[in-house]
Design a protein that fits this description.
The protein has 13 helices and 13 strands. Strands 3-2-1-6-5-4 form a 6-stranded antiparallel beta sheet. Strands 8-10-11-13-12 form a 5-stranded mixed beta sheet. Its EC number is 2.7.13.3. This is histidine kinase.
């Protein structure tokens, strides 16, 4: 007599069924959804309950513990009855890979299916043989089929199909479909694991970035606080040193005067550092107050030129300024801040150039723009260093191999020029000198904006 649970081979129907299962399982990348659909889809989509399939279990290898771990179970009345009876919770029904007699381990290692009508073959360990037989009798399972889940020649785990019919009643059509089904499962599990790993990495990276941002804020707060605390005593030191050097405290020996002058110069440098740190903090937080007005850039450039002429002469450098007679240079900026930018560029040029020249050049590259260039015949800057030069706290070595400055000057220049809607950059190379430049829109261009908007 033919079993009520038996099918007849229908290859076309098998292909269609597999296609249907693939669409259901591969529709999501969430690992929990995937493993749930794997054990449910065969029963719900193809109604294999009618063919005697009662319990489907997905087992995957746990790389950390070197065990095969049951991760999902079909939601049938038999499965619920089994879970109520077992003495070990489902997530902890692990099978050690050292249990070589267990068919789950055999199917995983040999990468081929195994069939059994005795549950101790798949439940021992973790359960005893007596317990395994009692659970099998409870749910009236006659046969269990264990199929490996394989991707690219590597076993990921196994699928266990427990049926209320004998293996003789399982048609070749069913075996073909289950074989194809496990291939789909392999792809789905691999994709979900990769996606989950990527999500986990993204979350970890996001958390790390959050911590870095918090640390950056804390660092900025500390720098700002430290700068405030340092400025008052250093200003007082500057005053006392000036009084001593100017003779307010009486005559001092020449040798002592030299030491005091050095101390005063160092203190001045520290004050500049503190002011730079405070400026950076204020600019980044939007707290810096700008006194915007129309100015002629030529006047600022000449003032800076006169300031550094004596220092350049002391180093034997030829310093010059080139301004076309009919240049358009009226801009709308904070004059003190633009003075600071040009002074910083000229100071660097004089500092890093041992011989040759320093030039300040003004021009109109476009009708509504003015350009300032500070060119020198110094050692030049490599392309690699140029990429990092305008970053906060980045410093380059001088020709003597020493690192000079605070690494804040050019960063502040960049922030200020961009605040005034300009651009800043440099042209340089090893041994070719450097030309730092910035361009700003003319005041007349800004005045035309409301008319064109």
């Amino acid at each position: 007599m033919k079993s009520i649970y038996r099918t007849t081979p229908e290859s076309k129907e098998t292909i269609e069924a597999l296609w249907k299962l693939a669409k259901v399982i591969l529709d999501t990348l969430d690992f929990k959804d995937v493993v749930t659909k794997i054990v449910e889809s065969l029963l719900s989509e193809l109604n294999y309950l009618k063919l005697g399939y009662r319990i489907i279990v997905l087992v995957l290898k746990d790389e950390d513990d070197n065990v095969l771990k049951r991760v999902s179970l079909s939601k049938t009345s038999e499965a619920e009855k089994l879970l109520e009876a077992t003495t070990i919770p489902f997530p902890k029904m692990d099978v050690p890979l050292t249990a070589l007699d267990n068919l789950i381990v055999k199917a995983f290692n040999d990468q081929k299916p195994y069939y059994t009508n005795n549950w101790p073959d798949i439940l021992t360990p973790p359960f005893s043989k007596e317990e395994s037989f009692s659970y099998q009798k409870l749910v009236e399972v006659k046969t269990s089929m264990v199929y490996p889940v394989i991707v690219k020649g590597r076993a990921l785990g196994v699928l266990i199909f427990s049926l209320v019919k004998t293996i003789d009643d399982v048609s070749q059509e069913e075996k073909d479909l289950i074989g194809g089904f496990t291939d789909i499962v392999g792809l789905a599990v691999q994709n979900a694991q990769l996606y989950t790993a990527l999500e986990d990495s993204s979350k970890k990276l996001e958390n790390l970035n959050k911590k870095l941002r918090e640390l950056d804020i804390q660092k900025d707060e500390f720098v700002s606080m430290a700068a405030h605390e340092l400025r008052s005593p250093m200003t007082a030191i500057k005053g006392y040193l000036s009084m001593v050097l100017e003779g307010d405290m009486g005559d001092i020996p020449d040798k002592a005067r030299g030491f005091l002058a050095d101390a005063n110069a160092i203190n001045e440098r520290l004050i500049r550092l503190v002011n730079n740190m405070l400026n950076v903090s204020r600019i980044e937080e939007g707290r810096l107050v700008y006194q915007l007005e129309k100015i002629n850039l030529t006047r600022i450039a000449r003032t800076v030129f006169d300031t550094f002429r004596a220092e350049a002469d002391r180093k034997g450098l030829q310093i010059s300024i080139e301004i076309p007679e009919k240049i358009s240079d009226e801009i709308y900026v904070d004059p003190d801040k633009i003075n600071e930018v040009i002074a910083n560029l000229v100071s660097n040029a004089v500092k890093y150039t041992d011989h040759g020249f320093v030039k300040i050049i003004l021009s109109n590259p476009l009708p509504d723009w003015v350009r300032v260039e500070v060119a020198d015949s110094g050692p030049g800057i490599s392309k690699e260093e140029q990429k990092r030069l305008f970053r906060k706290f980045y410093r380059i070595e001088s020709t003597s191999g020493k690192t000079i400055g605070t690494g804040l000057g050019l960063y502040i220049c960049k922030l200020l020029i961009e605040k005034f809607n300009g651009t800043i950059g440099l042209d340089s190379g090893d041994g070719t000198g450097s030309t730092f430049w910035f361009e700003l829109p003319l005041a007349r261009a800004k005045e035309r904006l409301p008319e064109s908007s």
